[in-house]
Amino acid sequence: MTLKYEDPPKICCLGAGYVGGPTMTVMAKKCPEIKVTVCDLNERRIAAWNSSALPIYEPGLQEVVEEARGRNLFFSTDIESAIRECTIIFVSVPTPTKKSGIGAGEAADLTYWELAARQIAAVCNASENKMPKIIVEKSTVPVKTADAMAAVMAAACKGTDFQVLSNPEFLAEGTAIDDLFKPDRVLVGGPQTPQGLAAIECLANVYRKWVPTERVLTTNLWSAELSKLTANAFLAQRISSINSISALCEVTGADVSEVGHAIGVDSRIGPKFFKASVGFGGSCFQKDILNLVYLCRSFGLPEVAEYWHQVIVMNDWQKRRFANAMVATMFNTVSGKRIAILGFAFKKDTGDTRESPAIDVCKALSEERAKLAIYDPKVSREQYYEDLGKEAMEKIEIDEDPYVACAGAHAIAVITEWDVFKTLDYQKIFNSMSKPAFIFDGRNILDHRKLSEIGFTVWAVGKCMKKVLDTEGSPSP
Ligand SMILES: NC(=O)c1ccc[n+]([C@@H]2O[C@H](COP(=O)([O-])OP(=O)(O)OC[C@H]3O[C@@H](n4cnc5c(N)ncnc54)[C@H](O)[C@@H]3O)[C@@H](O)[C@H]2O)c1
Ligand SMILES: O=c1ccn([C@@H]2O[C@H](COP(=O)(O)OP(=O)(O)O[C@H]3O[C@H](CO)[C@@H](O)[C@H](O)[C@H]3O)[C@@H](O)[C@H]2O)c(=O)[nH]1
């Protein structure tokens, strides 16, 4: 028997966060005939989605929300009604790293996920309408999670046909709207049964309304779940690889940008994700690699687990190395020195600070008793308190203007690659700073030669400091 699904299918999503919000907004824009409802337990978040001050910053998001909201896009806390009336139910709730118990520090915490599954099962069970449902894992989950979802549904919900699919999300923050408009691929995994294949077709057809058919990939469930963890592991591995080479560049006179370019033009390697940095951040890379590491250990593959774990080890080292280099360069002490931190978000074009390397660097410098003055164009004041703690914040200045943050500083650290930092008036900044004036470029976005000419002592990731200072440009190992 193959299932016949409602056409067009009504869609809802549990979780109105960085993924649920933008993903469903774009789906509603591209499929005006489909009613899309985004639900959340958090009333403030839903109120914000229904206002002009959206709960997340993402370039282009506001315009798309305004176009579709109230037409076929709705934000609501009425989760039960949404589950009851919809055919396709996306689940996009957090799956953070477990903090305690078995697998603490590595395994994914599936508490939110299971609560959502139980809620769907309970509503379907109580509902008189037994229309078939497609439940879609949008959250990033360990391989085999769909089995758990199916078990919860089978045990707690009688009389409803349901299929569980995996449709991992590959958007990156800061470019989410572009990524969703033109994805490299959409991945839909499901059971390879007639019912499962019918559900895969139903969901794939929604995406095919704006994504070319050849980019809508269909697989079995476990391939889809594992592909998400693997994609993030490979991307993060490239960053850790180039960051490891950045350390070698600094001591040999090689330049990490030149090395990255020289290897990236090899079409077998490719140019993307080769920017050396103060370390990668964001809510996904570390969590998903740890999740992969835990899975490998659970399946008796310690060598594979250790291999991927090194990506995290290298990233932690890179963050520490940056803070240590600052202290070492500034005559082995930053105690009492004012340091301007430019950028606190984990990357440009987002206000998200989850796992931002800025948190580690600020904590390390605070421990050395530096006086920090932080500027970021998008991070909210409350977020600094959450990330750095109330006690530390008593000694930290948050500025609304980068020139104010830099005035009187002994050093500047560029932690986030915001475009605005490239065009600041560094002569004016230099004039306002204590001397010698240091600048630490954790993103290689500044013109180091020009800064040296102004008089700054420049330290940049993967660049030999002597080379930066040498206006002739000849490397001096
Ligand atoms: N942030 C990203 O760029 C990104 C990209 C791809 C995949 N992911 C994955 O997507 C998932 C969600 O990530 P996020 O960044 O959107 O998280 P988020 O914290 O921004 O949003 C999750 C939302 O789910 C809500 N929620 C929790 N339980 C709920 C329930 N039972 N019913 C309704 N709402 C509920 C929370 O209140 C929260 O608002 C994670 O598994 C993450 O790994 C994230
Ligand atoms: O060459 C590079 C590229 C990125 N980064 C850093 O790596 C982190 C992650 O960046 P990015 O991947 O662009 O952002 P995310 O929003 O974390 O997106 C990743 O994580 C998402 C959640 O799983 C996936 O959906 C995306 O495909 C994947 O790119 C940031 O701190 C970046 O500054 C570098 O240091 N060097």
TrEMBL record:
GO molecular function annotations of the record: NAD binding; UDP-glucose 6-dehydrogenase activity
Record GO cellular component, one term: nucleus
List of residues binding substrate: 169-173, 228-232, 268, 275-281, 346-347, 443
Ligand binding (NAD(+)): 15-20, 40, 45, 93-97, 139-140, 173, 284-287, 354
Gene Ontology BP term (one): UDP-glucuronate biosynthetic process
EC code: 1.1.1.22
Transmembrane segments: none
Keyword list, A-Z: NAD, Oxidoreductase
Enzyme superclass (EC): oxidoreductase
ATP-binding among keywords: no
InterPro entries hit by this protein: 6-PGluconate_DH-like_C_sf (IPR008927), NAD(P)-bd_dom_sf (IPR036291), UDP-Glc/GDP-Man (IPR017476), UDP-Glc/GDP-Man_DH_C (IPR014027), UDP-Glc/GDP-Man_DH_C_sf (IPR036220), UDP-Glc/GDP-Man_DH_dimer (IPR014026), UDP-Glc/GDP-Man_DH_N (IPR001732), UDPglc_DH_euk (IPR028356)
Reactions catalysed according to its record: UDP-alpha-D-glucose + 2 NAD(+) + H2O = UDP-alpha-D-glucuronate + 2 NADH + 3 H(+)
UDP-glucose/GDP-mannose dehydrogenase C-terminal domain span: 340-448
Pfam families in the cross-refs: UDPG_MGDP_dh, UDPG_MGDP_dh_C, UDPG_MGDP_dh_N
Coiled coil (residue ranges): none
Gene3D superfamilies xref list: Cytochrome c1, transmembrane anchor, C-terminal, NAD(P)-binding Rossmann-like Domain
Active site: residue positions: C284 (nucleophile)
Pathway(s) served: Nucleotide-sugar biosynthesis; UDP-alpha-D-glucuronate biosynthesis; UDP-alpha-D-glucuronate from UDP-alpha-D-glucose: step 1/1
PANTHER family the record matches: UDP-GLUCOSE 6-DEHYDROGENASE, UDP-GLUCOSE DEHYDROGENASE/UDP-MANNAC DEHYDROGENASE
Entry similarity comment: Belongs to the UDP-glucose/GDP-mannose dehydrogenase family.
Protein name: UDP-glucose 6-dehydrogenase
